[in-house]
Specification:
With 326 residues, the protein is of the alpha/beta class. It is built from 7 helices and 17 strands. It has 2 domains: 3-65 and 145-325, QueA-like; 69-137, Beta Barrel (Thrombin, subunit H). It has helices spanning 134-137, 154-157, 180-183, 222-230, 239-252, 288-297, 299-311, and strands at 27-31, 38-42, 56-61, 63-65, 69-71, 77-83, 88-94, 104-107, 110-117, 124-128, 165-168, 188-193, 216-220, 233-237, 258-262, 275-281, 322-325. The strands form 3 sheets. The chain has a 9-stranded mixed sheet with strand order 2-1-17-16-14-3-12-13-15, with helices on one face. Strands 5-6-7-10-9-8 form a 6-stranded antiparallel sheet, with no helix packed on it. The model has no long low-confidence stretch (mean pLDDT 96).
């Protein structure tokens, strides 16, 4: 299939650059795979579609977003992709010409040096002489389409209410809609997948079979594995939870307690072993995420749902509305 097959035109005013004041006030499109029917509901009504009596199980990603974007004293950008140690980081930098081998990097009181240039992706390894003050200099790496820098309110709002395992650059956005009042009555469990910088990377190849996925670290606990094995229907909250479970099931035959990393690429033609439902936000055109949704709901139905979401003026992307596929 071609990357262009997953394109669509989105009016820019439908991009949600700010969150709603109330998390659970989002709209929720409900897409029924068997009939092709589409409903327009509110997210707070999700309990009508998830039943403890029917042995449903929501699976959410409990990763916590960390401030990964920093600016040097000269105003250059350093995005911490992976902390190799507390003071040695693998980074994406802008502009690259200001980060040559041996160059000095100053962030507040911390002095760093570029000790390695990673030729395969243009990233840098930077070694600092002390800890960088995250509370003073760290910023959330909000997606570029929001068109703004992070604000103090994002520290709470660009974080799920159940976030607990630090390590993500970006939020697992399908989980942002939940409040404790909505989530607690529903059968649920957690996995952890730390969302990496690859979530921002566009698909640059014409044929999706040629795309190489980024790798992300995950963990599934014994409690979660047992809950999933006991459920009759597993509803993954977000593409990250789905990628975690389907990766584990692909590698082990079923969901077991394990940890590792995955570069699984879910696109049409994929054979699902675990997921029986998916709650997800509306994704960028030609992205691996809309390809995943198309694999689960079917490409034709997915593109039909996106066209209807645009007609109905849904809010798109990280701070936007959501879609429940059952």
């Amino acid at each position: 299939m071609l990357t262009a097959d997953f394109d669509y035109h989105l009016p820019p005013e439908l991009i949600a650059s700010e969150p709603l004041a109330e998390r659970s006030a989002s709209r929720m499109m409900v897409v029924h795979r068997d009939s092709g029917n589409i409903e327009h509901r509110m997210f707070r009504e999700i309990g009508e579609f998830v039943s403890r009596e029917a042995s449903d199980m929501l699976v959410l990603n409990d990763t916590r977003v960390v401030p990964a974007r920093y600016y040097t004293d000269q105003g250059y950008e350093v995005l911490r992709v992976e902390p190799l140690t507390a003071t040695r980081w693998r980074c994406m930098v802008k502009p690259g010409k200001k980060f040559r081998l041996g160059d000095t990097v100053q962030i507040g009181e911390a002095t760093g040096h570029v000790i390695e240039i990673l030729e395969e992706d243009g990233n840098r390894i930077i070694e600092f002489d002390r800890l960088v003050d995250e509370s003073k200099h760290g910023h959330l790496a909000l997606p570029h389409y929001m068109g703004r820098e992070d604000q103090p309110t994002d520290r709470e709002r660009y974080q799920t209410v159940f976030a607990r395992s630090e390590g993500s650059i970006a939020a697992p956005t399908a989980g942002l809609h939940f409040t404790p009042e909505v989530l607690n009555p529903l059968p649920h469990t957690f996995v952890t997948l730390h969302v990496g910088v690859g979530t921002f990377q566009p698909v640059k190849v014409a044929n999706i079979a040629d795309h190489k996925m980024h790798s992300e670290v995950y963990e599934v606990s014994a409690t979660t594995a047992q809950a999933i094995q006991s459920a009759k229907r597993v509803i993954t909250v977000g593409t990250t939870a789905m990628r975690t479970l389907e990766s584990v099931a692909r590698d082990h035959g079923r969901v077991i307690a394990t940890r590792g990393s995955t570069d699984i690429f879910i696109h049409p033609g994929f054979e699902f072993r675990v997921a029986g439902g998916l709650l997800t936000n509306f994704h960028l055109p030609k992205s691996t995420l809309i390809m995943l949704v198309s694999a689960f709901a079917g490409k034709e139905l997915t593109m039909q749902a996106y066209a209807e979401a645009i007609r109905e003026r849904y809010r798109f992307f990280s701070y936007g509305d959501c879609m429940l596929i059952v």
